[in-house]
Amino acid sequence: MNSKYVYPAIFTKDKDGGYTIDFPDIDGCFTEGDSLPEGIYMAEDALALCIYSFYEEKHIDPPTPSDVSSIKLKKDQFVNLIVCDTLAYRKKFNSKAVKKTVTIPSWLNEEALALELNFSQLLKEALLSKVNM
């Protein structure tokens, strides 16, 4: 699964000096920032949230990003490409523990208990190595 995305965002300069940011390719994906750096940061966060929530969780491919040159702008607007990584977003905000039941041979359980091994930690490490993290 792809986790890195680049989408154009329309930045609209507000009267108070801040920015309103909208993603024309992703319905309902918008944010704002009090400054340009904050707006870019907030746009990355909003984009990751929207792609993860609207598409990845539902196993739907996100829309193809628009060509920047095809986006019509109004006065006080400009387009900026925003990059996000939904895997990094999930690691940061969706690290809730999930209980799993596993079956292992009795002898292996006894040996692991004798060594005071942490089953949860071992399973986590094994899974991370299998998914190349």
Mean pLDDT: 91
Strand ordering within the main sheet: 3-2-1-4
Helix count, DSSP H or I runs of 4 or more residues: 4
Beta-strand content bin: 15-25%
The helix/strand class is: alpha+beta
Q: How far apart are the first and last residues' alpha carbons, in Å?
A: 13 Å
- Give the beta-strand count: 4
Order of helices and strands: EEEHEHHH
| Rg computed from alpha carbons, rounded to a whole number of angstroms | 21 Å
Largest sheet: 4 strands, antiparallel
- Per the principal axes of the C-alpha atoms, what is the gross shape? elongated
Percentage of residues assigned to helices: 25-40%
Low-confidence stretches: none
3D architecture notes:
The protein has 133 residues and is an alpha+beta fold. 37% of the residues lie in helices and 20% in strands. The protein contains 4 helices and 4 strands, in the order βββαβααα. Strands 3-2-1-4 form a 4-stranded antiparallel beta sheet. The protein is elongated, with a radius of gyration of 21 Å. The model has no long low-confidence stretch (mean pLDDT 91).
Show the helix and strand layout.
Blueprint: E1 4-13, E2 19-22, E3 30-33, H1 36-55, E4 77-85, H2 86-93, H3 106-114, H4 119-130
Antiparallel strand pairs: 1-2, 1-4, 2-3
What brief labels describe this structure?
elongated, 4-stranded antiparallel sheet, 133 residues
